[in-house]
Amino acid sequence: MIHIDSIRDKTVLVQTTYHPAPHLETEMEIVEHLLQQGNRVYWLICNADFKVCFNNPEHKKMDCEVCFSRVNKGVNFIKKKIENAHNLHVILYSSFLKQSDFKKSFVPKSDFTDISELKAFRYKNYDSGMATASSLVSFTRNHEPYVTDYKDFIERGLFTGAYLYEAFQMIIEEVKPDLVVLFNGRFIENRPVLRVCQEKKIDYATHERGGKIDSFLFRVNSIPHSIETVSEEMERLWKQAIGNKEEIGETFYTNRIQRVEDAWYSFTKEQQEGRLPESFKHNSGKKVITIFNSSLDEYEGLEGFGPYFYSNDNEGIRQICEALENNTDVKLYLRVHPNLKGLDNSQNQFLRDVIGKYKSVEIIPAEDSVDTYALINKSDIIVVFGSTVGAEAAFAGKNVVLLGRAAYERLDCFVIPKNHAELMTILTDDSYEFPKIKHEDTLKYGFWNESFGYKYKNYSPINLGKGSYKGKQIKANFIIRELRRFINKKR
C-alpha cells in the first residue's frame, strides 16, 4: 500500500468533480498535504464542462455557477495559506480541448432499448455506457430505468464521458503526472479519467469518505469499492493494530444498534426498538428465516458486485420463495432495505407485483418500523446478498447465509452456498450444521469500519455534510448562492 505521506517530489494531477462537503474539503486536504511534501500539483477544475455529473445531473446553470464558485474559493484558500502555493497550478479542460471542436466529430447515440444495451456501449476503450448507466441509476434511484425516458440524460452522459476521455489524453500528455487523484471512480465525470490512467499505466488514487466522519479514504491504484483491496486492508489493519482492537471492533456493532451516525446515515433510526411483526406470535415450532435484501441501485455500475449464482437479488428472492411455497415448517420474512423507502422503482415494483404473490413469504416494507436487530435476534437463519446486516448478524451469533459479494466475504462467519440447490438444503434440512462462527473475524470487519482512512488534519466536520477547513466554512459567492435560491424558489 502506498501511504500518502510517501508521495514526495512528484507531479500530481487532482481532478475535482464533486464539490459538496466533505469532498471538496478532502481534495483541499490532499492538495495541501501533497504541496507540503514538495510535490507539484495540477488541480483540474470543471467550468460547466460536465453536461452530466453526480452533483448536477440535470446540468442546471446556477448549480454549475455555485459549484465553480465554491471550488475556486477552496483553491484560493489553499493558495493563501500554503508556503508552497507556487507549486499549485489550476487548469481547465477547455485549455486543452474545446467542447465545440470535439462536438464536430462526436456522433451521439441514444436509441438504446434497455439498460443492458446501454451498459454494453463503449467509446473506444472506455466503458462509457456503463458509467452513464451508473450515473443514471443513481439519478433515478432505479436499477432498471426505462432508458427511452432518459434519452437527453444518456446523450449528455455519453458526450461528457467521451469528451473527458479525449481531453484527459491531451492533459496527461502535457502535464505528464506521476499520480492522478480522483473522486470515487464510478461516475460519468471520473470514470474516463480512471480508464485513461489504467490504459496508460499511470498510478492513480481515489478518495472518498473514510470509516469515520473525521477521516477520508485515499487508496492508490484501487477504487473505494474493491472487495479485494478491502479484504487485504482489513487483514493488514488488524495485524498492525495497537491497543484494544477487539473493543474497537465491537464499537462498530454497538454503534449500529444504537443508530449512531458517525460515518453515514442510519437507515434504522426510525425503527421502533424491539418491535417484531405481529405474525411472530404464530411462529412456534417453525424455523424462522429472514432475508435482508439490498437496494440494487447502490452497487449498479460497480465491477464485481452482485449475487454469486443468481442474476440479481430479486431473482434470488423469487426462487427462494418459490421453493418454499409449500413448506409449512418454515416462516420466511423479507425485510426490505430501508433505503428503498418511498421509491416507486423497478425493484419495489418487482417485490410488490411478483414476490408479493407468494404465500411463502411475509414482506416487511422499507418504511415499516419493525426493528431490524430484534428481527435478527429472533430469526434462526439470516440470508443476505451482501449488506452489512450479514456481518452484524454473525456478530450476534446467528447463522448467516451470504448470497452475494461483500466486503466481509473472506471472513469465517457465514456460509456461501455453491448453487440454489445447496442453498435450499441449508435452509430446509434440519440436520445441516452451520460451521462455528469465528467471532474474531466479525471483529476484524468492525475494526476495519472504525479504522480505515486517514484522519483529517485541517477539516473539522460539523455533521455528515457540513464542516470547516482551518476554522472557515468554504462557501460559494453569497450573491451566486442567493440567486440560485431565488431561481429555485420561482420554479
Automatic annotation (TrEMBL):
Tell me which Pfam families the record gives: Capsule_synth
Task: State the Gene Ontology BP annotations.
Answer: polysaccharide biosynthetic process; polysaccharide transport
Question: Under what name is this protein listed?
Answer: Capsule polysaccharide biosynthesis protein
